[in-house]
Amino acid sequence: MTSTRLRLALCSALLYTLAFNLTFFIQELFLVVPKALTPGLRPTLFHNNHTWEGQHPLASLFQGTGAVATIVSGIVCLLLLRGDRVRSTTLRLFLIWMAFHGFFQALPQFFIGALVPGNDVGMAMDYFHMSQTAKWIAASVAVLVMVPIGARLTRHLLGISHEFFTLALIPAFAAIPLIVAFRVPREMLEVLLPPVLTTIVGLTAITANWWRLRRVSVAPEPVTVSLAYPLVAVVALLLVFQLVLRPGIAFY
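RESULT FIELD:
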């Protein structure tokens, strides 16, 4: 691997790590805030979860607001990527991974929610008294939506490089141990399942489009990316997660 490709792979892994954890934070924040504004609920935000005390009929509904928030985050990032508004390759790659996680952290939850009522989205489905058939319809729509989203993200990635392994596959899986450092301590299943599931589902959607779209897109020139900014951002966010969020922030 040349120094340029190695630099791109390292930058992509750092940005993938940053985007996963920022998106996860957005999800948990928007699970907590609606509960904090609801009488009788006393939520606490942690680095890898949230909890709450008290009871209210709306609590199960608000278990779905995190997934909605991350989808909105993904849509916003895709809109920012339109045209030539963002000139920095590093920033464009960050927005691509933010969009990736915004969708692929949320959409699989609809499928899981149809199977597991205790899942966040599953609880929101039960609030609306959705039948099992309605749940499977929602899950099917979520799966189908992944196809055009994967195609759109693939086009943006191809605008940076045609090196699939360097830009996407290797960095995404290499980032998982870094992501784990943000999420410990917790049960290993809860630590590993979200990043592994998101990575497998999201990269499957991108891989399904990559080789088809690569043939019809113009290969870009070798790009220069920054390592300093992503590295500083990852370290700073890790410190926030482990020193500030890990003890818990009470929203009451």
